[in-house]
Design brief:
With about 100 residues, the chain is an all-alpha fold. It has one domain. Helix 1 packs across helix 4. The radius of gyration is 16 Å and the shape is elongated. The termini are far apart.
Amino acid sequence: MGCLLALFGAFFPRLALFCIWIARPVLFDAALGSTFLAILGMLFLPFTTLMYVLLWTPDGLSGTDWLFVAIGVVIDVTSTAGSAYSNRDRVPPAYRMY
């Protein structure tokens, strides 16, 4: 059950972005500008992209909106760094930096 919860937590922002993209394609395209940027955001920075799309207005983002986008960046970076740190022992000795 714990693995299922972790798997759902990892894919939730990507699933939410996909649902927003399907439900409101005009909003999604207006916020991000291009499909290429949207796909890159889904792959590498899903929480940041999700926060940006949810908080975007035609006037742009205001001060506190940028705070939530920054929190999304922190969540994305810590999740990537945490997975890299937990898998550090799986790297073959030839590739380790001493």
